[in-house]
Structure formats: C-alpha cells, structure tokens
Amino acid sequence: MLRAAGRLIRADLRQRPFQAVLTGLVVAIAAAALLVTLHLRDVMSEPFDDLMRATNGAHVTVTGPRDDVAEAMTLAEVAEAEAPRRQLRVAAGEQARGRLVVSALPVGAAVDRPLATEGRLPRRAGEVAVLAPLALGERLRPGSAMRLGGVRLTVVGVAVTAIPTADAWVVPDQIAALTPAAPEPGDPGDTSATADTGATAATAATAATAATGATGATGDSPVVFEAGLRLRDPDDADLVAARLAARPSLRVSDWLEARTNFTEDSRRNFAILASATLLALLATGFTLATAIGGRAVADRRRIGLLRSVGVTPRGVTAMLVGHYLALALLAAPFGLLAGSLLAPSLFDSSLGLLGMSPPGPPAPLLTGLVLVLVLVAVALACAVPAWRAGRLPPVVALQPTRSGARRASRAARAARALRLPVTATLGAKDAYVRPVRAALTVASLALAAALVVCVLAFEATIDRLVANPALEGEPWDMEIFTDAMRPAEVDRLLATVDGLRVIGHRYDVRATAGGIEFQGRVIDGPPEAFAFAVPEGRGVRRAGEVTLGRGALDALGVEIGDTVTLEVGGRAFSARVVGRHIEPSDDGRGAVTLASSVPAAALPRPNWILRLDPGADTERVGAAIERLGEGRLLVDRPLGSAEANPVRLIVYGVTALLLAIAAVNLLTTLLLGVRERRRDLAVLGAVGATRRQLTRTVVFGGLVLAVPAAVLGLPLGAVLFTTIVRLTDSADGADVARLPSWLSVALALPVGLAAVALVSALAAREARRVAIASALRAE
Amino acid sequence: MTPVIEARGLGKVHGSGEAEVVALRDVDLDLDHGEFLAVTGPSGCGKSTLLNLLGGLDRPTTGEISLHGERIDDAGEARRARLRRSELGYVFQFFNLIDNLTVADNVELPALLAGVPTREARRRAARLLERLGLAETAGRVPGSLSGGQQQRVAIARALVNRPSVLLADEPTGNLDSAAAREVVSVLRERSEEGQAIVLVTHDLRVASAAHRVLRMRDGAVVGEADLEGEAASGEALSRVLPLEG
Predict the structure, then answer these.
(1) Could you give all domains of chain B from N- to C-terminal order, each with its CATH number?
(2) DSSP code of A358?
(3) What are phi and psi of A203, to 5 degrees?
(4) Is pLDDT at A1 greater than 70 in this prediction?
C-alpha cells in the first residue's frame, strides 16, 4: 500500500511539476514565517532578564569619583556591590580608532560581570574583551590585536552587559599600565565623550541617559570609578537612581529604563511579526485546502479507479494527505533554511539596544518543532477535502459525463446584467463555479489586500511622523546635547549659527506626583515654537500649566482641568492640567511644562532644542553646529522617512510573503479551474473563441475574484492596522496612526488588479494550450 | 461551382516512433453547397479525425483543405478560430454544452464570441430555439433537458452564426432511438433548407438520411454511395448496408 502510494505520488509530481512547485512554495513560505516568529519569540522572551541573570547585572550603575561611588554603595537599598572598578578613557589605535572607555574587570567579578558571547573575558595582562557592538563595528574577533592607551593588547573575547558603561575590559593590573587619553575640553570624565569611537553601546547608553536626565557632571578627569549595585528590591531601581542622580558628581543608569527601551521595541516587532505570521499561516491553509480540494475534483476519475481496484476510502484519504505531506517534507526544509538565514537580520535593531550580537540561527530543536507544526498544519488543511474525496463512490467517480449544474451561474447572470463582454461572463462563471474554492481564494486575496492597506497606512504614518516630530514627542527640528561646554557658552555659540529661527532649552527631569514617577519635559522657549501634539485640551502656554500623556493621566487618575502637585528634584509645585499630549515613551507616562513653572534650582543641565528658518537645510545647519562645537556638541537630527522605523523590514517582508501566498493561491485556483474546465475551453475553441478570448476569460476570472477581495480587504486592513497600532502603542497609537489616503488606495487598486491580471495571465497560458481535438476526444 | 469544402490527399499521423498511429491516409473529399454527406465506418477508422481536420480543430500531417476555394489547412490558430465561428458549425456526440449557462446563453455564445451585438445574438438564438421546438427551455440549464433536447440545443448553437457547413460528430451516438430520430429529422430539415452538412456516424440508419455516404476503414475511404433523392427509403438503406460488409 505504502509503495503504491509512493509510486502514485511520484507520478503525480512528475505529471504536474508546476502545481507541485506552487504548493511547495507556499509550504516553504509558511515554514519560514513560523520559524522566524517562534525564533523571535524565543530571542525576545525576556532576553534582557536572561542577560541580567547571566551577568548578575547591576540594577543601578554609578560612575564618578571613587569616594562618591563608594558612598553610593552604602545605601540601605543596596544588597550587593563590589569594590569600585577603575575606568579609564584611552586613545585607541590600530583597528579601533578614536577614544574608548576601558574598565578594570577583576578576574573573579561576581556583580555586573560581562557575558562573553565569543571567546572569554581577560584573565591576565595583555588581554582585552570588547563590547559586542564595538567588535561588530570594528570587526574585532578573539585573536585580533588592538592598541589601547599605547599598549598593544590581544582581543580574547566579545562581551555584553545589560547596561553598557564601558567599551572594553582588561584586568586591573593592565589598566594601570594604560596611558590615559590627554584630557580634552569636552571630556566630562565619564563615558559620554567617546562618540568618536563609532556606534558603541556605551556611547548610546550615555546618550540615552543624557536624554533621561539621570546623569550628572563628573568632572574633567579621564579616570573615574564605576560600581554596579544590586538592590534588595530591583523595582526600587528608578527611585534609587533618581536619588543618586541628584548628586552632580555621579552618572547613573538603572536597569528598568534599559529594559523598557529594549522590550518596547521587541514587543512591537513581535506583535507585528506574529500578526503577519498568523495571517500567512491562515493564507497557507486556504491555499492548501484550495489545492487539495481542486485535486480531488479534478482527479475524480483517478480516485474512482483507485477505489475500484480495492483502495478503501480511508486509503484514498491517506494517499491524498500523504501526497501533500510528502510535498511539505520536500518543501519545508527550503523554508526553514530561508527562515534561519533571515531571522538574525530581523533581530539586529532590537538586540543592538542591548549591545548584543545578532543571535545565531534557530536551534535544531526549534527547527524540528516548526517542521512538525508545518506537517500537522498541512495534514489538517488537507484532511477534510481528502476525506470527502475518499468517500466518493467509485461508480460516481468513474462516470464519464459530469453530473451537470442544477442552475445557471449567478456570476454569469450578473455579468450579463452588467452588459460585460462575453469573455467576462465566461470568466465570472468559471471563477465561482466552485464556491468554497472561490471563497478560500477571495479570503487569501483579501488578507493580502489588507496587508497592503497596512503597508500604505504604515507609510502614511511614518510620513506623518517625519513631517511632524511633535507626534514623537519631539516638536523641534534639531536637538543639541553636550556635557563638555557650559550652557552659556553653548547659547553664545548657537546665536552665531545661520539658519536658526528659535533656540530653546529642554530639561529632562524625573517628576513624581502622588508617589508615581514619570518623565517630565520642561521647555524653556516660546511654547508656540515647541508645541507638542495635543489631541485633547490644549498645549501649555504659561507658567502653572502642564500637559500629561495618557499613561500619566490614567496613573494619576486626573482629568484635563484638574490641578496636580508635581515634585521635581525634591521641589514641589502645582500645575493645572490643560491637555493630553502625545507621549510616545514609557507608555504615555510623561508631563510637559514650561521652565517658568518649575523652581529653577530643580532644573538640571539643559539640552538645546532648535527651530530652523523655513527652507533651511537641516544637514548643513547640523554640520555647521558640529564644526563650531569642535566635536563637543552632539547634534541629533530628525530621522528621514527611510530610517524612521526599523520595523519596515519586517512589515515589508511579511507583506511580500503574503502577497506571494495570495498569488500562488490565485494561480492554483485558476489553474485548477482551467484543468477542470478543459472540456469547456475546448468547446469554446470549437465554436470559434480565439486564444486571446480564452486568455481574457481566465484573466477576467482572476479579476472577479480580486474585486470582492479588495472590497473585503480594504476595511479589514484598516481594522488590522488600527489593532496592531493599539497593541503596540496603547497610549497614543490611535492619535499617531494614519490610515492611507483615498488617493493612495485609489492608486494601489489598479496596481493590485494589474498584478492579479498578470498572475491570471500565467494560468491563461494553460488555457490557450488546450488542444481542442484531443480535449474533446478524451471526454 | 467551387465546392464548399475541398480536401486533397489528407493524412494524419498521431504520435511518433513506435507509438505512431496513422489515423488518416490520402483522403480526398468534396462537399457541395447544400449537400448532406455522411461518413461512416467502424470505431477507430478515422471518421472523427477527418471531421476535426475539416473543422480546423486539428491540422493535417499531409494534404490540403480548402473552404470556398481558400486553403485553411495552413491557416494560423486565430484565423482557424474565426473560420470556426463564422463558416463552420460543430455538433458533438456528448453535446458539449456548457452546463452552468442557460440554453439561450449556450446558443448565443458563438454569436457573442464573433462580435454579434447582444440583442441580435439573442434574437437569433430565440428564433433557432423556436424552430427546433426548444423555445420553452431557453432559461433552463442543459442538465435539466433530455439527451435529444440537449443535442438540438447543440445544433442550434452550431447554426447561430449561419455557417456554410455543419459538422456533426456522432450526434446520435449518445441518444436513445427516439431522440436519435429527432436529431436526424432536424439535420434533414436543415439540409433541405440548403445547409451543407458533414455527418460522422457508425449508425447506417442515421447515415441513410444523407445525400451521399462515404465508407472508411483504417483511415482511408474504401467506398462511397450516392443516395441523393432516395434518402430514408428502404431501397437506399439496402444500398448502404453492403458498404459495411
């Protein structure tokens, strides 16, 4: 029996290689999508927590003078800390250029011990381990040589930490032998002045902490000390960090902030990818059901013959299911291979925040699990049509003539009523001759159309964000960070730059109200120039007013019009809530107020926010500021639409996958239709239909399936997009997201229909090839 | 007068090598305007192959076919398609009606494919169905009709573009004797109205309705009987029967 089934399956694959390839392609796509999703889930399943566990990571890191750091370690909340580690800023030569922060790592370090992802940590003098992003950027690997502080060292490992505070680690004996970099006016004595070393996580972390305000100046010495603090209650990290940050000599980071940054990004990516994979699997199921359902109809005679030679109904069912399982077994490995190759690139952006290298390919166990899941899904998709085929009585199956339709095609009647050409009438009739199959194909096309709407909406939203940075909580054209210059000096310098319309200050503070902490943005400048996006109420205009993000409003239980008492830097003040602003960070837990509302003593060092003259070239102005700042000013330019969202790759990738599946489904349906209606096509030829007319018939068949799919897919896409937005940004997603314009949909529709016509034309080639005489002879 | 169809030295070979089958060899045939020609012979003798070649459904391996004096055997697929819908009407053994179109739609189909305006196509279909006694079935699907009715619908479809020649391949082969009589009667009526007909059948009683009978065996014409003026008479039948002997 098995041997017979094997022979039949082989013969079938030989006979219809194109259909087999199409079905295999869909299975491979589904396998790839499932593998990527599950791998992402594995990688994203609290990787930050995993890293914290693996490194016994610090809940709070403090950097600054030895005595201040040592004092921080004595706080009552601290459960575990080790002797402060010396940090040194050194000149880097050879492969790594510029200046790097090197930390002395004792061989037996127990707290905040970097995790070696390649090689090992240094054990003796002459060895160095480098932070993963630095290794990636500078192509350093275990065995590479690098010169640090005038000493040639051998890279023995690549490592990561939860909160990166150094670019490289050496043993304490080695750090004493390194020559500190010559102090520069811009050196703050912490790790932030290493921007010229390239995109290191330590640098990025510094920029991030500078933006949160959890920092303090640490003097001009290139030598500082660092300690990682493990707290009794890790959830207190933000409060402890806030208290320590009040000391100007210390730079402080906490693990909660780092985790939020990482998990927000990964959660969003996962939600998008998981939704798309679900759709892809659904579409795959539709396609398989279409294929096997069509096969059962087209192979009636063969099934009848099998039954008549003694194959049981169960045997026929098993043979059909086995056929598709064999096909899936052949095709799935290609998909699994593609998924394994694709996965790491999709994770780059998220893991980069952690300073982690992209993960390796999915584990063999996961790959095996996906293979099993795909096979089970294929078996389930095939089960019903195969079972129905198996139950077909042999006599019925072997009947040379068809049973005949009981009524005329409604689709044909509708086409006639609409006075469509005869080829359209015939196409409509054929497209809907198998209602279940037509429904599956329409569903698959509708899913693809929905995802196209999502892509259009995604692009519209990105364009909106790029055009209006206020929607990202950044209502300015450019922002300047520096710890290396005095504020008055920066003000004077900026006043000389051409192209600046308004110069303001932004203070990032940690505000508390009713025991709840959230991010505060204090603006010193004309409020109309730096107007945040305020969907409810209005923006702040004068002292004593505040706007809150949705998360802050909910957490505080206040409404617009209420007065709240806020505390910043230990100083309290009251403000009236005048509106809800769009707050993209920290689940909407943020406040915006004017500097005149906050006691001056509570304000930390500012960042500078700039509005440019209309038409001014952002790049040119930014370059001029950097030039004038002689490397001491960090210019944050707004993102262009191309780089605005790292999720684009995922969204475009899954859309392409779903479009491919939909195309395969449509092609399968039309090819099956051509095969089943071969005799009708021959009859049409016999009564004078030209090949062009036959092509039009099939193409129109594809189009009449696409039209209801578009009608269903457009609103479905809108719902899907708003749902994904709500899932990924519950606070302000609905305010920020934008559905595509009617114009873009109107332009996309003909493109989509043209694509459908193109796919249909492939099936039409089969229709044109029907040899009239032999088709009619074979009846 | 030029015959409607003129075939010279027609040959058809299916397959190649060891699988080669000679379906037709060196057949000559003329069909005059209004002539009713029957081609008969045992199964596999090449009758249907001959009809397919005359109808432009297949290409001959050797020989020439002319329609109204113009060669059609070397015509491209598009021209042959146009000829099929304007000059040739086809009737098949298994009716070959499109099962999910109504009777009227089926009959109108060749006219619409030929670009005849919808209203005119409908008018022609209605008139044909009326003349063939099928007016009441216009809105029904073919599957709800008897075999004889279906074949009459097929004949109506074949005639809707007023072809020069009606080609009928075993039109009674799938019918009981009463239905077969209906169909033969329709063909004879059309013939009397001047329609040229080529009828392929293995049923001598059906063949006896024709003006002339060709007898085929192993792909070649092996006999011919001219029955003009004696159609359906007992004498005609007796003259045809020996052909099969």
Answers:
(1) 5-244 (3.40.50.300)
(2) P
(3) -65, -45
(4) no
Q: Tell me, yes or no, if B232 comes closer than 8 A to chain A by beta carbon.
A: no
Three-state SS string across chain B, please? CCCCEEEEEEEEEECCHHHCEEEEEEEEEEECCCCEEEEECCCCCCHHHHHHHHCCCCCCCEEEEEECCEECCCCCHHHHHHHHHHCEEEECCCCCCCCCCCHHHHHHHHHHHCCCCHHHHHHHHHHHHHHCCCHHHCCCCHHHCCHHHHHHHHHHHHHCCCCCEEEEECCCCCCCHHHHHHHHHHHHHHHHCCCEEEEEECCHHHHCCCCEEEEEECCEEEEEEECCCCCCCHHHHHHHHHHHC
Q: Which two tokens stand for residue A53?
A: 């566990």
Asked if residue A231 has pLDDT above 90, the reply is yes
Tens digit of pLDDT for each residue in B165-216? 999 998 988 888 888 888 888 888 888 888 999 999 988 888 888 999 999 9
Q: Do B101 and A412 touch (CB under 8 A)?
A: yes
Find which of A399, A407, A416, A422 to mutate to test the B interface (most B CBs within 10 Å of its CB): A422
- Is B109 part of the contact surface with chain A (CB cutoff 8 Å)? yes
Domain definitions of chain A by residue range: 56-256, 410-470+641-779, 475-636
Rounded distance, CA A444 to CA A424, Å? 22
Which of B48, B100, B157 is closest, CB to CB, to A687? Answer: B157
Q: What is the pLDDT of residues A689-714, one digit of tens each?
A: 998 999 999 999 999 999 999 999 99
Residues 6+ apart with CB under 8 A from A143: A154, A155
Helix pair A435-467, A691-728: axis angle to 10 deg: 50
- Interface residue A408 vs chain B (CB under 8 A): yes
A142 C-beta neighbours (distance < 10 Å), count: 17
Closest chain A CA to residue B119: A419
A446 contact partners, CB below 8 Å, separation of at least 6: A708, A709, A710, A712, A713, A716
CB contact under 8 A, B161 and A688: yes
Q: A395 versus A358: which is more confidently predicted?
A: A395
CA distance A406 to chain B (A): 7
> Which of residues A273 and A447 earns the better pLDDT score?
A447
CA distance B60 to chain A (A): 12
Q: Which segment of A343-357, A533-547, A733-747, B103-117 scores lowest on mean pLDDT? A: A343-357
Average pLDDT over residues B85-96: 87
CA closest to A779 among chain B residues:
B94
Q: How is residue A687 annotated by DSSP?
A: T
Nearest Cβ partner for B101 among A409, A692, A777? A409
pLDDT above 70 for B55:
yes
Asked if A404 reaches chain B (Cβ–Cβ under 8 Å), the answer is yes
For A630-652, what is each residue's pLDDT tens digit? 767 777 766 554 455 556 666 77
- In this structure, is the dihedral angle defined by the CA atoms of residues A539, A543, A549 and A551, taken in order, positive or negative? negative
Nearest CB neighbour to A687, from listed B101, B110, B144: B110
Q: For chain B, how far is it from start to end, CA to CA, in angstroms?
A: 34
Q: ipTM, 2 decimals? A: 0.84
Residue A353 has pLDDT above 50, yes or no: no
Interface of A with B in 415-444 (CB under 8 A): 416, 419, 421-422, 425, 429, 433
Whole-number Å distance between alpha carbons of A336 and A341: 9
Give the one of B58, B84, B96 whose C-beta lies nearest to A679's C-beta. B96
Residue of B nearest to A402 (CA): B99
pTM here is: 0.68
Mean of the per-residue pLDDT values of chain A: 80
For A47-58, the pLDDT digits (tens) are 677 788 888 999
CB of A292 within 8 A of CB of A12?
A: no
Q: Cβ B90–A687 below 8 Å, yes or no?
A: yes
